[in-house]
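Person: At home tonight, work slowly through the protein below, taking as long as you need, and write a paragraph about the fold.
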Amino acid sequence: MNIHQFRDFVNSFHIDFVIHHYSNVDGKNYWACLCSTMDWLTEADDALPEFKKRAKQNVGWIDLYGYLSCIDVTMEATEQLHRCVFGVSGKPTSLQFPTQCFVAKPKEFAGLSDRDYFKELRSAFGAHPVNLHDLTTTNASKHKAKRFASWVLSSGRGQISDEVDFSVRLYSNLIGVEDVHLGVKLSELDRFCNQYRNHLESIVAEIKR
């Protein structure tokens, strides 16, 4: 199910009931949240195919970052939808998926969940590349460990490994600390995004209850 199908469902499934049911939940206007999430899921869904196409063509880093941003909006909006709809029913509102999408994590990031790892990817590949928290260095230095990302490496720009589509080199602010290579596969990003898009079917089923 895509967001356009989901929006059509919400607008056709006893819309007056849906508005009444979610517009005042313990003094909170969940309907406003539902409207916002549907708007931004639509924006992300409309923009994602072009960014994905251009990222696959290795046109430039901004297209990869655009793709990551579309996924980020899809993830957070779906999580908000889940919290609103399942929260009304008194069910657990934390959204977790059993499938591990990112199997090509560097060992330094192996302990992160897929969601947390995705946030690291988005930060390093364009959101906050010159101001990254260092999750990989344990030391007794008086200086706080930080990382700084290189420009985005790809097949035509100094790529370090054929096992990933894009990568960055993470430099450390601490003397003597080795660089870390952070890579991303577009196929893994696809799987990560699709699990959120597919979750709309579960949200529909819950609304119908």
Remarks:
- The CA atoms of residues 164 and 185 lie 5 Å apart.
